Amino acid sequence: MRWENLTEGTAGPAALFGADAVVTRTFDTPEFRGITFHEVRARSIVNRVPGASRMPFEWTVNPYRGCSHACVYCFARKTHSYLDLDTGLGFDSQIVVKTNAPELLRRELGSPRWSGAHIAMGTNVDCYQRAEGRYRLMPGIIEALRDHANPFSILTKGTLILRDLPLLREAAGLTEVGISVSVGFTDTSLWRTVEPGTPSPAARLGAVRTLTDAGIECGVLMAPVIPFLGDRPEQLRATVRAIAESGATSVTPLVLHLRPGAREWFTAWLGEHHPHLVERYERMYAGGSYAPTWYQRRITRQVHDLAAEFGIGPSRRGEARRTAPPERPAVEAPAEATQLTLL
Question: Are strands 152-156 and 119-121 parallel, antiparallel or unpaired?
């Protein structure tokens, strides 16, 4: 592994940390077995999103690189190649930890040059992946954002976010806080093979219920909808129904996209588990990283129709309701539901 392209001594702004500041650790515990952590002292933590990006935000904070969720489709896999790390198993098991992220963020937020713009987290790799249970970077990050009343959002597949619920409530009392949980499907057999390191979809939706019951508005990014594996009408209905029952204030579908790095890894997985679909995927994604527009629109329309039927989503804002009699009082959603859309 080479760190030169991101270390001090590199010309230009690419130097993110010093080579002598890298400490490599392994932990012989069941939850971290087979995972290597590279602890670094980052030189900056607030990152500007490139202007050509499809992301609907301008600034991000990413305390980790690599992700033990091991989602076979993860678009962030390509970023590991910048460190000369493998974008396949290396992305799942070689985790870079920016140990000084909270203190660095506090300093950057306090700079007179900082405008107080919205900061998005969890948009590259999950800030509540397993490593966060050990390194506990997010409490300090949320505290810094709270103390500066800086608006922020978090996207996660990790139920560990519930640990920080008191801090999130404090921050929401001072600034705009948006929380989205990613649940693309509720099919447990599909989950076990494509998202092996994540909490189950049911556990994630349980986290949505806990957050909304605590007064924290929480939407669901229904992502990814996986062509030919998770897009049957009955699958979409079951997923949207479960999302509605969780009390989510919104649901936003996102069809699988396959960028370089992720595309090769996903195709290898597909060839092993569903070889009959390889040619269909080659045809569907022949035009690039994204599924055809007609397919994306079809999925979006189906999900929005189901969301309207179950009382959530962009078509019908208002009170989120269950499809079964509630055991607790329903939580009234604000007039404008926060939604995270990556298209």
Answer: parallel
Q: Which of 131, 134, 128, 118 is nearest to 49 (CA)?
A: 118
* pLDDT value of residue 85: 87
Output phi, psi for 95, to 5 deg: -105, 125
Question: At 303, which amino acid appears?
Answer: V
pLDDT over 80 (residue 247): yes
DSSP state of 33: T
pTM equals 0.85
* Both tokens assigned to 68: 């033990």
Nearest to 291, CA basis, from 41, 103, 28, 299? 299
Q: How far does the chain reach from its first CA to its final CA, in angstroms?
A: 34
Tokens 């920016």 — which residue? 98
By the 8 A CB rule, do 231 and 299 touch?
A: yes
Which among 154, 183, 127 has a CA at the least distance from the CA of 340? 154
Per-residue DSSP letter, 8: T
Q: Under 8 Å CB-to-CB from 193, ≥6 apart: which residues?
A: 72, 269, 273
- What does the angle CA 52 – CA 57 – CA 60 come to, to the nearest 5 degrees? 100
102 Cα distance to chain centroid: 19
Asked if 159 contacts 183 with a C-beta cutoff of 8 angstroms, the reply is no
Extract the tokens encoding 202. Answer: 């049911």
Q: How many CB atoms lie within 10 A of CB 233?
A: 9
* Distance of alpha carbon 15 from alpha carbon 342, whole angstroms: 28
Q: Are 232 and 198 in contact (CB under 8 A)?
A: no
pLDDT tens-digit readout, 181-196: 999 999 999 999 999 9
What is the maximum alpha-carbon separation in the chain? Answer: 62
Decide if pLDDT at 318 tops 50: no
Mean pLDDT, the chain, integer: 87
